Hints:
Mean pLDDT of chain B: 76
Shape of chain A: elongated
Structural class of chain A: mainly alpha
Helix content of chain A: 40-55%
Oligomer: heterodimer
Order of helices and strands of chain B: EEHHHHHHHHH
Radius of gyration of chain A: 43 Å
Order of helices and strands of chain A: HHHHHHEHEEH
Strand content of chain A: 5-15%
Helix content of chain B: 55-70%
Largest sheet of chain B: 2 strands, antiparallel
CATH class of the largest domain in chain B: Mainly Alpha
Shape of chain B: globular
Structural class of chain B: mainly alpha
CATH architecture of the largest domain in chain B: Orthogonal Bundle
Radius of gyration of chain B: 18 Å
Low-confidence stretches of chain A: none
Strand content of chain B: under 5%
Number of helices of chain B: 9
Mean pLDDT of chain A: 72
Largest interface: A-B, 47 and 62 residues
Strand order of the largest sheet of chain A: 1-3-2
Amino acid sequence: xxxLSKEQLIDYxxxxxxxxPASVGEHLAACAGCRAELEFLKRLKTAAGSxxxxxxxxxxxxxxxxALPTEAPRKGFLRGFxxxxxxxxxxxxxxxxxxxFYLGLATxxxxxxxxxxxxxxxxxxxxxATVKKVLAAPQKNTSAKTAVYSYTxxxxxxxxxxx
Amino acid sequence: xxxxxxxxxxxxxxxxxxxxxxRESCLTERFISGDVSAFAELAELYKDRVHGFVACIxxxxxxxxxxxxxxxxxxYKSLSSFRREARLSxxxxxxxxxxxRRRLRERGREAGLFAAAKDESGxxxxxxxxxxxxxxxxxxxxxxxxxxxxxxxxxxxxxxxxSCWERLSYQEIADALDIPVGTVRSRIHNAMAxxxxxxxxxIPAERGETR
Lengths: 163, 211
């Protein structure tokens, strides 16, 4: 196997979580040149990782705490949910379920489904409306298959808000 | 030189990931449950890192501290919406990147720093005279490394910071910078190559011929 490229060595050094091919390890065990190169890169990485960071002011945190908003950040409605792992997709799923439930109820024809009311036939009698007629309740003809209500003009006028 | 307030692993100055994650998680929980003082501890934990990251992108000027403050204020306002799908540091760096990007746009310097086309040509070739022939020890060596990093392009400084200092994975860096993993990989390669040229006289060489 030819010597490892610098890219391979850097990947070997940095990408520790993705195992390098066994051939890389075997080559490193056998090749002193690549081992020396890897050692140099390790030192370089350690040196870069140990370099002092640019200093911040001594009172940085005090200034920061003074600059913060006076009240604690409130959890918004959605933020409260987010904190519990809520996702906006869940809201859409819930809304979808509600729509499906409504449609199911509206189209349900099985047992227990709401029955439409019996058709009503309205019959109007002629003649002027009188107080007596207005106060009279409509009479239901129970003998007919379809419920028939006999309204006087007064009943109809009262229902229509004319009186 | 600022001191790190968190424990380190193997004396390398690199923060212990697990311990840090546990502490961050605890502080975040406290803050979300209403303990504002937990944020002061979180800010103490992150001030150097956020400032360092901002300085990588904007350059180490006086404004970077103000931007770091702005980032942490943004963290304060948005922490309750943190979904914990990523590490807190990745999320904070993504926020910091957005704040820096906005500031760069305000400055009119957006072009050239985040555009992929400028990636390869973003850094100057090292000035050999600045580092060659010198023998560095201790703090001077650390200073030389810092100078070498400062001499890189913002793009390379940023990936060096996130990979070497913060020890994020390729994927985490990609998430923080909102770029593909392949781009992260090539930037790290280029940044390490540029850094190697600058530091070849500082880092004791036990290497063979340069390839």
